[in-house]
Amino acid sequence: MARVKQVSEHRAEGDVERVYHELRQSLRVSGVDVSLRTWAAHPRFFVAMWEALGPNVETRAFEELAAGLWQEVLDTTVRWEVLGAWSSVKLGPSQRFHARGALELYEAMQPRVMLMVSAVRLALEGHVVGRRGVPGELERLERGIPSRMAAMEWVAEKPRDAATRSLFADIEKTVGPPGVPGEYRALACWPEYLEAAWRRLKPRMKDDDFQAAAESLRESARRRALALPFEVSLSRERVAALGENVEAISRVTQALETRLPSLLLNLSRLVQDVPDILRQPMPGASRLVPDWVAAEELR
Hints:
There is one protein chain. By secondary structure, this protein is mainly alpha-helical. The chain is built from twelve helices and no strands. It has one domain (10-297). It has helices spanning 14-27, 34-39, 43-57, 60-77, 93-124, 162-175, 182-187, 191-205, 208-226, 236-241, 246-272, 291-297. Helix 5 crosses helix 9. 41% of the residues are buried. The model has no long low-confidence stretch (mean pLDDT 88).
């Protein structure tokens, strides 16, 4: 796949900037993931995607589906060998605090992104995604980024440091397009740690059991996406009517769905390698508003 454009948060304008804000608030995370930034390069599609998925994302049901997917990932990788990267490098207390925070951020975010990507992929394939519930009838979660969540900080995708550039090239070649995943760009703030982690992660990705686990997670994410509470009204015909390049969007979405299970497995190994990291970090609190108010807000 040719290099795919991404829309950074500081370059987002108009409706894309608005959707970025709503994504951060609804997903309760401190930044916008690479996967979502890639979709944002097709702005009319991106807005339509959020209109279709947004009512689901704020529900307790979505939270539980994503949490179930992440628990499945953890249960798979806990049987594998200990990664050993965290204890192999010399990081000071402050460095470990911030690196742990970066992992907790992606632990909270990536299962939700995987669920969103699976829903979009299925919808573009012509499947009926989600149930026919009425927005406002289910428990919703409070919006907003938890105060203890780490800021999303990345190393540039094309860093000046030659060693990091080479490492990024190897990561992208191994996990596939589009672009260097955000969690690796975040961990590159501590290059020795990233190098030690990747040196241990990469060999396992070639194993048959890893590939089988990735395929199982991909199918699980699809099943969970089909069970979203509200129908995801998105189709190739609608995307074409918006004047967007349907084939380009389909290719990007397929690439994202292909690589995200592997990224989740690797993230789980990184998380389980840190002895004092949060498990299921920062669950959402119930949004204490009447159903009719919730329904009005979603119109």
